[in-house]
Amino acid sequence: MANRVLEAWNGTAVNRRDVPLLPLGDFQQIVGDVVTAGGRVTSMFGSRSDAGDVLVVAALADDPEGRLGLLSTRVAEAWPSLTPQCPVLQGFQREIWELFGVRPGGAPLA
C-alpha cells in the first residue's frame, strides 16, 4: 500500500497535494480493506475541482497505532456506494450527494 495512502498523525497538517489520488476502484478497495481489518473511517468529504468533478478525500484511522491514512479519488455524477460494506459511510456519502449532486449508487439516503 506504499504511496497509495499518506500516513499522518492527529493534529499534523499535510499539504492537500500530497494526498494520493487513486482510481475509484483502488480508493474503494483500500477503504473497504481497512474497515474489514478493524480500522475506521474518521472523515470523508468532497470539494469541487477545477475540472468540475468532485475530489473525495477519506481519512482512515489506525487507533492502536495512533495513525491516520489519507487518500483521495475523483467522482463525477455517481459512484458505487460503500455503505453495504461500511454502514458508517452513509452520512459521509449523503453529505457529498447533498453538496455536490454525486449520488452513491445503491445507497440508502434517507
Identify the strand order in the major beta sheet: 1-4-3-2
- Summarize the amount of helix as a percent range: 10-25%
| CATH hierarchy: architecture | 2-Layer Sandwich
Output the CATH class name: Alpha Beta
Largest sheet geometry = 4 strands, antiparallel
Low-pLDDT stretches are none
Number of helices: 2
Coarse morphology: globular
> What is the total number of structural domains?
1
Q: CATH topology, which one?
A: Beta Polymerase, domain 2
Give the SSE map:
Elements: E1 6-9, H1 24-36, E2 40-48, E3 54-62, E4 67-75, E5 78-80, H2 89-100, E6 103-105
Give the tags.
two-stranded parallel ribbon; 4-stranded antiparallel sheet; alpha+beta; Beta Polymerase, domain 2; 110 residues
Task: Report on this structure.
This protein is 23% helix and 34% strand. With 110 residues, the protein is α+β, with helices and mostly antiparallel strands. The protein has a single domain, classed as Beta Polymerase, domain 2 (2-Layer Sandwich), CATH 3.30.460. Strand 5 (78-80), helix 2 and strand 6 form a beta-alpha-beta unit. The longest helix is centred in the first third of the chain and has 13 residues, at 24-36.
Short synopsis of the structure:
This protein is of the alpha+beta class.
